[in-house]
Write a structure and sequence with these properties.
Order of helices and strands: HHHHH
CATH architecture of one domain: Orthogonal Bundle
Keywords: Nucleus, Transcription, Transcription regulation
Protein name: Transcription initiation factor TFIID subunit 13
Shape: elongated
Largest sheet: none
Structural class: mainly alpha
Oligomer: single chain
Number of strands: 0
InterPro entries: Histone-fold, TFIID_TAF13
GO cellular component, one term: transcription factor TFIID complex
Strand content: under 5%
CATH class of one domain: Mainly Alpha
Helix content: 55-70%
GO molecular function: protein heterodimerization activity
CATH superfamily of one domain: Histone, subunit A
Length: 151
């Protein structure tokens, strides 16, 4: 990485990826309960990698005149690591494929009367108000629809 950075004091001693690291260690053949020191060191390495990569990506976005990070900024930050770049490309391709698959099965159920952004059409609002008025004006059985009171 470009420059060594001290971990922020608020993150010191805090494990950000503990359950994931424990599971990965076990999946790769370590003991079911790995040493706490091993988990702590791997968590520190992982956290530092995420912080450094995010810092480089934010510099790339800043250089491009943007304040928000894009995927391309992270691709730029990891461009030197061929294995990591290949894995990112693979995961992005899978993500794109999953989104396309979801679109094919999207039936729009549960979105009756809703448009983009969750807003309703004006006509739908007017129709709902008219239906509500019509329902409120109907007499109910309690109000007496020809039934006789037994007193």
């Amino acid at each position: 990485m470009t420059e060594p950075r001290a971990r922020a004091a608020r993150h010191k001693g805090q494990l950000n990826f503990e359950p994931e690291i424990r599971d990965m260690l076990f999946a790769f053949g370590d003991d079911k309960y790995p040493l706490d020191e091993t988990v702590r060191i791997l968590d520190e390495i992982t956290t530092d990698f995420v912080i450094e990569t995010s810092h480089i990506a934010s510099k790339a976005a800043e250089y491009s005149g943007r304040t928000k990070l894009k995927i391309d900024d992270f691709k730029f930050a990891i461009r030197g690591d061929e294995i990591l770049t290949g894995r990112v490309r693979e995961l992005l391709a899978i993500d794109k494929e999953l989104k396309e698959s979801r679109k094919q099965f999207d039936t729009g159920e549960g979105r009756v009367g809703l448009e983009r952004g969750g807003r309703r059409k004006k006509e739908d609002k007017v129709e709902e108000k008219e239906e509500a008025k019509a329902e409120n004006s109907k007499p109910t059985q309690d109000e007496g629809l020809g039934e006789e009171d037994d007193e």
